[in-house]
Amino acid sequence: MKSLKYNLIIATLFTILLLLPDFIGNILWQNYYIITSKNTLKESAITFFISLLISFSNARILFFTLFFLFGVIELIYFDFFHSYIQPYQTDLLFSELEDILDSLKSIATFIGILMAFVIAIIALLSYFLKKLPLKSYKLSTILLLTLILIFPFFVNKKKVIYIPNSTHLSYLNTFFATNLWILNKFSKKIKKTYKPYIVKKESNGKKIVIVIMGESLNYKRMHLFGWDINNTPNLDKLAKNDKNFIFKKAISSGINTPVSVVSFFNLKREPQNINLLLSQKTNLLKLAKENNYSTYWLSLQEEGTSISTLLNYADYKKTRKDFIKKYDEVLINELKKIPNKKTFIILHLRANHSPYEEYTPKKFYKWDFHSKDYATYKRKSYYNGVLYNDYVISKVIEYVKSHFKNYSIYFTSDHGEMLGFKDEGGRFGHSQLTFGDTFVPFLYYSDTKRELNKTFYNHYQIGKMIAKDLGYEIINPNEDGTYFINGVSIDGSSGFIQYKINNSKLIKENK
């Protein structure tokens, strides 16, 4: 009986520790976990039951560490995004791990403290558990493994109930998200068929076509579009004095870089239309080569496995690893080396990738971002990045304007970025399936006049304009007035938003 008493004590201790991330979260953020939720008593009882099973398991440290890390992971995720882990975002661990680790530098101190705390807890538990006469049963380990394996079937019956939110404990939020992700991966996919796109060659195209692809730039946080922070002085001047400069609001085709960039350069409207990617029929670089353009892909981003399908059609390519200096200005130097001939050029920028200050030269630190307040730090650092973007874009336009004729320059961003404002639901970052991280600028400059009368454009429409300048008309027989924002999977399996643009308003149809 004495040893059983120790198991009960350890089970109680495990329960307290598994609940600890939620108390930490509530200290750091208001209503991180709603203690008065109807789930609190039930999930606390479930936590004690799980802890009891762990206390009797002969792999108790391993199981406890797993569940405890689930809670800590939710804290880290919330500190960066100010929202809860969603099932589809698990895919990012496979598609954007390097960028995730890069972004997390901005909360490195918080992660360091948490991980030191986790290591200390596990080390102390390991030491004391060896000293205690605890009962161990293989049956307990089998029950824990069975629980982990069969739980997805319970989740499958009521998926909506298990979506991570503030009414679930931290470790369960991560556990639920993982289970829902697994279910999605193994569930039967509904295959959709689409009519093939029609590509018509109409002309030899313009002599010079340049696409500048930005990173995480949100038009709502640019002075050019009415934001009250003066972070676009050069573009403001162009808008005021040069009739050839056009700026419009736009919507991205995806919520992360690999999906949006690949969709953009392939003119992929339908998230599930994978055949279009397999055929490469509408790949803008491929079309350019077929119309006798020299093609350049100059990027301060990593190549990435998904984007590499685009680079296959670049005659000249340089990515981040090929540059000694890591600021976007080096792309202007590369642009100046390109001969004055029929050319299609992509300049892929790095600023405003998180942590924003890392990709912004210090001479552009106009706003002091050193602050203990997370929102203040993120916003001011971001504004400096926007200021740098303004400089780079204007310098590209300035150079092309003075050295070339018969050209067009396009600028948009891969996706937007959220900075915790009220109209963004207090969220930060991107890769979240919401309109908030899809608002991007669309800038256009040419030496020939062009009318752009719509209030909103999107990546798909911009891609068709670029194709036109390259000498092609793209006809999509699947168009019906709706457009899509893809989730973090290029095949649409991680969800998407369907919307219409009606009377200058975005109308979300479904998710």
Please characterize this protein's 3D structure.
- This protein is of the alpha/beta class and 511 residues long.
- It has 2 domains: 2-186, no CATH class; 198-483, Alkaline Phosphatase, subunit A.
- 44% of the residues lie in helices and 15% in strands.
- The strands form 4 sheets. Strands 5-4-6-2-7-10-3-11 form an 8-stranded mixed beta sheet, sandwiched between helices.
- A hairpin with a 2-residue loop joins β14 and β15.
- The protein is elongated.
- The mean pLDDT is 91.
Could you give a quick summary of the protein structure above?
The protein has 511 residues and is an alpha/beta fold. The protein contains 16 helices and 15 strands. It has two domains: 2-186, no CATH class; 198-483, Alkaline Phosphatase, subunit A.
Keywords:
2 domains; Alkaline Phosphatase, subunit A; alpha/beta; 511 residues; elongated; 8-stranded mixed sheet; 3-stranded antiparallel sheet; 16 helices; 44% helix
Terminal CA distance reads 55 Å
CATH class of the largest domain: Alpha Beta
- Unreliable sequence segments: none
Per CATH, the architecture of the largest domain is 3-Layer(aba) Sandwich
The H-level CATH homologous superfamily of the largest domain, spelled out, is Alkaline Phosphatase, subunit A
Oligomer: single chain
Shape: elongated
Helix content: 40-55%
Integer count of domains: 2
Number of helices: 16
Per the CATH scheme, the topology name of the largest domain is Alkaline Phosphatase, subunit A
**Structural Rg:** 26 Å
Largest sheet: 8 strands, mixed
Strand content: 5-15%
Count the beta strands: 15
Question: Could you tell me the mean pLDDT?
Answer: 91
Q: Strands of the largest sheet, in order across it? A: 5-4-6-2-7-10-3-11
Structural class estimated from helices and strands: alpha/beta
